[in-house]
Amino acid sequence: MKKLAVFCGSSNGASNVYIEVAKKMGRELAKRNIALVYGGASVGIMGAVADSILEEGGQVIGVMPRFLDEREISHKNLTELIVVDSMHERKAKMADLADGFIALPGGPGTLEEFFEIFTWAQIGLHQKPIGLLNINHYYDPLVALFNHMTSEQFMHEKYRTMALVDAEPNGLLDQFNKYVPPTVKSYN
């Protein structure tokens, strides 16, 4: 893996643990020489991940829609900032650049990005690893929902296992390195 996309909040969250583990993720990416692809913001968990990888000499590529860049929330010290015209173009560019995808805690936007990329894997549009960094048990309800979807036969087990989960960055990245995508019917 050369580049990983990270979806996460532009807020700090209710506990300092979110920022601390986000920074830990950035340091781990830098240590493994994996570039960060992310939304390009300087604030919240997004900014913390970017700052920590930059502090360690790592590479950071931000993808920011023009309307957000004009609000001056884009990070000014990135390796590269790609300004696009829309949120749809942002997601497509991030998906194109990345070799895998990790969701850190965030709100509806983070979940929307995660679910789109997860759905794309289910229908065979990509075979890249997808993970949830389950900081402070943040994603426990989502993991429980995935298990419920599977037991209620709205999701096949092979799709449920596409979502790799770990509370620690190094554990999740180790799972990414071992990831073998399930066979799915491709619709492209």
UniProtKB/TrEMBL annotation:
<comment type="similarity">
    <text>Belongs to the LOG family.</text>
</comment>
<keyword id="KW-0203">Cytokinin biosynthesis</keyword>
<protein>
    <recommendedName>
        <fullName>Cytokinin riboside 5'-monophosphate phosphoribohydrolase</fullName>
        <ecNumber>3.2.2.n1</ecNumber>
    </recommendedName>
</protein>
<keyword id="KW-0378">Hydrolase</keyword>
<dbReference type="Pfam" id="PF03641">
    <property type="entry name" value="Lysine_decarbox"/>
</dbReference>
<dbReference type="InterPro" id="IPR005269">
    <property type="entry name" value="LOG"/>
</dbReference>
<dbReference type="InterPro" id="IPR031100">
    <property type="entry name" value="LOG_fam"/>
</dbReference>
